[in-house]
Structures are given as C-alpha cells and as structure tokens.
Amino acid sequence: MKTLKLLTVLIVISFLLLSFKEIEINFIGEGKINIKGRVKVCTETVYDAVDKFGEIQKTNLNSKIIYSFNSKGSVIEKLWYNPNGTVKSKESFKYNDNGKMIEDSSSDSKIIYKYDNKGNNIEENNYNWDGSLFRKVINIYDDKGNNIESNQYFPDGSLDSKYFFKYDNYKNEIEFNWYKGDGSLISSRTYKYEFDKIGNWFKKTEFKNNSPDEITEREITYY
Q: Where are the domains of the chain?
C-alpha cells in the first residue's frame, strides 16, 4: 500500500513539473516566446498602437502569428498571417535528442542553431534556399541564462548590427536596443505586460523610442 501511494505521489509531481514547464525560444527581431504550462497553441495578434489623450489604444491589425506545440512543449509550426488573412510565412522546426531546436525552416530560408554545454543558443546561421549563408548571429548570455546581447554578421564576417536585451525576474523581455555596426542607435524598444493567473502574459504593449508602437494580444490553449 505504501509503495502504491509513493508511486501515485511521484506521478502527480511529474505531471505538475511537466504542466509548468517553461518554454523559452528567441526569434531575433520578432520577440521571445516565454510560456509556462502545457501549451497546445499560442496565437499572438498584433495591432498598431497610438496614444490618444493619454490612453494607449490599438488601431490597425498588423499581423497574426500562430505557434503550434506538441505534447513535449516543442514548437512544431509557426504560421505568420498578413492583415488580410493570407499566409505571410510558414516555418517548421527540428530538435536534437535534448529537445533543443536545431533547425528552423521556411520556404525560402533556413536557420541552423548551435548550443554550448549549458544549453544556451550561442550561434545561428541563416541560409537562403540555395544553401548560401546570408547572416550569422552570435548570442551572449549572462549568469542567469538570459540572452543579453546578439551580434549579427554579414557573410564576409563584417559586423552588421548589435542587439541588447533586458529582462524582468520572470525572463520576460522588457527592453530591446538595436545598433548599427558602427555603434549608432537604430531603435530602442521597451515592453509592458499584463499577466494571467499562471504567469503568462496575455497583453504586451511595445514602445518604440518611448512612444506606443504596437499592442500584442495573446491567446493560449493548453493540453
């Protein structure tokens, strides 16, 4: 009887750990997926935003992105829609035995990911459909495992641009700064969130150079 009770407890603990698994994937220039729980589908609807008499309001539909996950918590498909409902791009993903994404493929390009011994994504090689390299990204992490800097290079090895990231205590990106290779600032963005009871954000307001730029509304379906 004690053995049966112990087995039941272990099963429950295992389920809870899986249920609250944190999914963290970074798409450079598109934001970071940072989701807790056994997610099946995540839909992000993006609107333009304006400040009207001190109130930030959404205006035109910008795009819609739908991420589909398998039961292991891995993204298996990403569909990006234009405002008129047509598909802008479709991406599929491959993973290694440790569950780390190693390939991101679309109809016209492919990204190959490399990791260090801590499981950090330290290098991204971007290829055209013909196999030619068009971009390399080197990522730098802090002691907490946060990607705090990304350096983007041209195929000849010269520096194209640099990205710097800041996060809150829950690994949500709160600041993004984009610089040219010569060090001049291209864009500065900050983010504010509203969260559900699990701790996943359902609304993100993005500010570009301190002015409201986009509002993203997120709907999550769980297993």
A: 2-222
Cα–Cα dist 63/43, whole Å: 11
- Per DSSP, the three-state class of 201 is strand
Q: Which two tokens stand for residue 137?
A: 């990204």
Q: Give the DSSP H/E element, type plus range, for residue 18.
A: helix 2-19
pTM of the prediction? Answer: 0.83
Beta bridge partners of 195: 201
d(CA 99, CA 156): 32
* Separation of alpha carbons 46 and 205, rounded Å: 10
Fold adopted by 2-222 = Porin (2.40.160)
What pLDDT sits at residue 73?
Answer: 86
Rounded distance between C-alpha atoms, residue 178 and residue 198, angstroms: 31
Q: How far is residue 135's CA from residue 177's CA, in Å, rounded to a whole number? A: 19
Q: How many CA atoms lie within 13 A of 116 on its CB side?
A: 10
Mind listing the pLDDT tens digit for each residue in 17-34?
Answer: 444 445 555 444 444 578
User: d(Cα 123, Cα 112) in Å, to the nearest integer?
Assistant: 8
pLDDT tens-digit readout, 82-128: 999 999 999 999 999 988 999 999 999 999 999 999 999 999 999 99
Provide CB contacts within 8 A for 37, sequence distance 6+. 19, 20, 21, 198, 200, 220, 222
**Residues 181 and 162 sit within 8 Å (Cβ to Cβ):** yes
Quick one: DSSP state of residue 15?
H
Q: Which stretches of the chain drop beneath a pLDDT of 50?
A: 2, 4, 6-21, 26-31
